[in-house]
Design a protein that fits this description.
5-stranded parallel sheet, 4-stranded parallel sheet, 44% helix, single chain, 17 strands, alpha/beta, 15 helices
Length: 377
């Protein structure tokens, strides 16, 4: 039987190249996962995701999909893969982060969370068991345990109580998963989530509890919520020291291109973030040379290709001047071009990082490339 995860190459540090095998295909790690919140990656066709951006796995959002289109339609469609015509792997989050972000309209108890829909104001309740049930109905290849994500800054006692609640919820998630079969005939892999805010002792306790759960992979949550980058790196480093080396490690919600490279150096295998598409819609392009603001006047008469080092067709087909014009004119096509460019760049970034891990010079390359990525062009 094919192993879910295998490490193909280790480095002198923590960075490694691996392979995740799901029933919907292989994922070469380290990997970046585009976010498809409501069964679509904003402004991007599935064809482009597959053929041009070369995404190997994308995300769906449990909270949003539960509210729209709802689980009746999801199940009638045969699950999210069939509903959105995406035959490669999918990961779903648990809905915990979205419920956390609705702090003004939710009530949390030991049992679960009552919250008000942002769409129509109706009330809903999600427990660990309900989150698992919804994710079964969505049918993602990798699904997340229901957790509570703490804000930053967070008082120590609040972080501790929240972490302990997450651990109790994890047991309920595992019990439900063990008692309920998959619906669509493919294997689903549950990942628990390490919490504990920026407190080292809590993070270590949480990482140990999560490791002992023996899941197929493990996630680190509650980072990239406003804390300084150095804190994020410190906690990630401490947690990856503890999480099993033979399981994939997923750092949730991260980040900039330099965040991604640094995190890979700290032993992270999987990352996701809305940044490439959200920033694209605001005219920010990430490139190997640095960051471009496409509304800047300096691009007005620059008829060179959008990105001569880019891997996407949009980088060759359109000029900087043209894309600037589209943004200034508030033309929808601008957002689409920029989103495709940024996602293709992020996938190229992790592909090249993997190549340097295999070549054995990842850390030298990292030190040289990060200052370049951060430049403002």
């Amino acid at each position: 039987m094919q192993k879910f995860f295998e490490v193909e190459k280790n480095t002198s540090g923590k960075a490694r190249a691996g392979k995740i095998t799901t029933d919907h295909g292989e994922i070469l790690t380290p990997i970046f996962m585009p976010v498809g919140t409501v069964a679509s990656v904003k402004t991007v066709h599935q064809h482009e995701l597959r053929e041009d951006i070369r995404a190997q796995i994308i995300l769906g959002n449990t909270y949003h999909l539960y509210l729209r289109p709802g689980m009746e339609i999801m199940q009638e469609a045969g699950g999210l893969h069939k509903f959105m015509n995406w035959e490669k792997p999918i990961l779903t989050d648990s809905g915990g982060y979205q419920v956390f972000s609705l702090s003004s309209s939710r009530k949390m108890t030991e049992e679960g969370v009552k919250f008000k829909s942002h769409i129509d104001g109706s009330y809903h309740f999600i427990s660990p068991e309900k989150s698992m049930e919804i994710q079964r109905q969505i049918g993602a290849d990798i699904f997340m345990a229901f957790d509570e994500c703490t804000p930053y800054p967070c008082e120590y006692n609040q972080a501790k109580l929240s972490m302990e609640l997450t651990h109790r919820w994890l047991k309920r998630c595992i019990d439900w998963t063990n008692e309920n079969q998959e619906i669509y005939g493919h294997k689903q892999h549950l990942f628990p989530i390490v919490q504990g805010s920026t407190y080292s002792d809590l993070r270590k306790i949480s990482a140990e509890v999560i490791s002992e759960a023996g899941a197929d992979g493990n996630a680190i949550g509650g980072l990239s919520v406003g804390e300084p980058e150095e804190e994020m790196y410190r906690i990630t480093d401490e947690v990856t020291d503890i999480l099993p080396k033979d399981k994939p490690r997923y750092l949730m919600g991260v980040g900039t291109p330099w965040n991604i490279i640094e995190s890979i150096g700290l032993g992270i295998d999987m990352m996701d973030c809305v940044m490439p598409t959200r920033n694209a819609r605001n005219a920010m392009l990430f490139t190997w040379q640095g960051v471009m603001n496409m509304k800047n006047k300096k691009w007005e008469k620059d008829f060179s290709p959008l990105d001569e080092f880019g891997t996407s067709y949009v980088d060759r087909d359109y000029s900087k001047a043209y894309v600037r014009h589209l943004f200034v004119a508030k033309e929808y096509l601008a957002k689409q071009i920029a989103s495709i460019h940024n996602l293709a760049f992020y996938l190229d970034l992790v592909k090249v990082a993997r190549e340097h891990i295999i070549a054995g010079d990842f850390y030298e390359w990292k030190e040289q490339i990060i200052p370049q990525l951060k430049q403002r062009l």
